[in-house]
Design goal:
Elements (H helix, E strand, L loop, with lengths): L5 E2 L5 E2 L1 E2 L4 E2 L6 H10 L4 H7 L2 E7 L5 H16 L8 E8 L8 H5 L5 H6 L2 H9 L3 E4 L8 E8 L2 H10 L4 E6 L13 H10 E9 L4 H9 L3 E5 L9 E4 L11 E2 L3 H7 L16 H20 L1
Parallel strand pairs: 5-6, 5-9, 6-8, 9-10
Antiparallel strand pairs: 1-2, 3-4, 7-8, 10-12, 11-12, 11-13
Helix pairs in contact: 1-3, 7-8
The structure holds S-adenosylmethionine.
S-adenosylmethionine (SAM) binds next to helix 3 and strand 6.
Length: 302
């Protein structure tokens, strides 16, 4: 059980995962990362005006920043538009394998950045509901029919995503926020991304903090269009993978990859992690990728 919070450089708190020794967030700021690498790249301003429904999959919910900052941003958009848009519902499905994280959420939500969110919903009731894997719904403005629902599934990500595909679920935005590919390669395989692609609406996008070539290349090999998000702290910008290039609006949050970055995708560094039946151990996934890299180098030297 995690019990110690660490303050990141923007003043927001995070935790250290003892097994892999990684922080839950970018050292430069847990809140800033959720805002710049996840919420802003969702293009909420456009969606609020154009869509009746928004559906988000938050893979690796953790301390909930990506979901909570997304809701915060949505509430701000709704206030700005005076609920004049066409949006009627927002559905968020979150997945994490760790049930204990819900106990940490009161301290996350007590931070000043979540004031608007906590004024809008009953956070105790929400946390009780999430703990029991039930769906928490709330209406941010009593005088409108607009509602937001949030469901937290406690499960292994790969199994949960397979079930969502079997149920033919569809999402506008998929947040992917596992610990790093080096620590947990099983969460970064091309096979998982192929499932994500099936879950995307026609103008959907997969959003992750990772800028690793093996990850960008895997998303590209799934037939998705790749762009990057703004850098947070010392880390390079994250990645957005779009299903439909017509939906890409390059703006202050979304950028083209440089020529050098694009070239790297077809180099050995871009060879993806693979786990076709979601059965391999971490060591097996890494070993198989290393063997594939060795083979590619041999072929290149012939
Ligand atoms: C980097 S943290 C996520 C941070 C989070 N998105 C946030 O905004 O606070 C990674 C999370 O992945 C979860 N996780 C690790 N392996 C998993 C698996 N196989 N299935 C589901 N969740 C997993 C961990 O429990 C942890 O909460």
């Amino acid at each position: 059980m995690l019990n110690k919070f660490i303050t990141t450089e923007d003043g927001s708190i995070t935790c250290l995962e003892p097994e892999c020794g990684e922080l839950y967030h970018n050292r430069a700021g847990a809140y800033t990362e959720a805002l710049n690498n996840y919420a802003k790249p969702c293009a909420l301003e456009k969606r609020v005006k154009k869509q009746k429904q928004i559906a988000v999959l938050d893979s690796c919910f953790g301390l909930g920043y990506n979901t909570f900052v997304f809701i915060n941003e949505l509430l701000e958009q709704l206030n700005t538009n005076n609920l004049g848009g066409v949006l009627e519902t927002c559905r968020i499905v979150a997945i994490d394998r760790d049930r204990d994280i819900v106990k940490l959420l009161p301290e996350i939500l007590a931070q000043s950045q979540f004031k608007l969110l906590c004024q809008t919903l009953d956070s105790n009731q929400m946390l009780d509901t999430l703990q029991n894997s039930a769906i928490y719904s709330f209406n941010p403005k009593a005088d409108s029919s607009f509602s937001i629902s949030l469901e937290l599934k406690f499960a292994d990500l790969r199994r949960a995503v397979l079930r969502l595909v079997e149920n033919e679920e569809q999402f506008d935005c998929i947040f992917h926020d596992g610990f790093s590919p080096i620590a947990m390669p099983e969460l970064w395989t091309i096979d998982l991304f192929q499932l994500y692609k099936k879950l995307l609406n026609s103008d959907g996008r997969i959003i992750t903090y990772s800028s690793a070539y093996a990850i960008r290349s895997a998303l590209k090999q799934c037939g998705l269009q790749i762009r990057k998000t703004i850098a947070v702290g010392k880390k390079s910008g994250g990645t957005i993978a779009f299903k439909n290039s017509e939906e890409i609006v390059d703006n202050e949050n979304i950028f083209f990859l440089s020529q050098e970055e694009n070239e790297k995708l077809s180099s050995h560094s871009g060879i993806p992690y693979r786990d076709p039946d979601f059965k391999y151990s971490r060591a097996q996934i890494v070993e198989n990728r290393e063997a594939e890299i060795r083979q590619a180098k041999l072929c290149a030297n012939k």
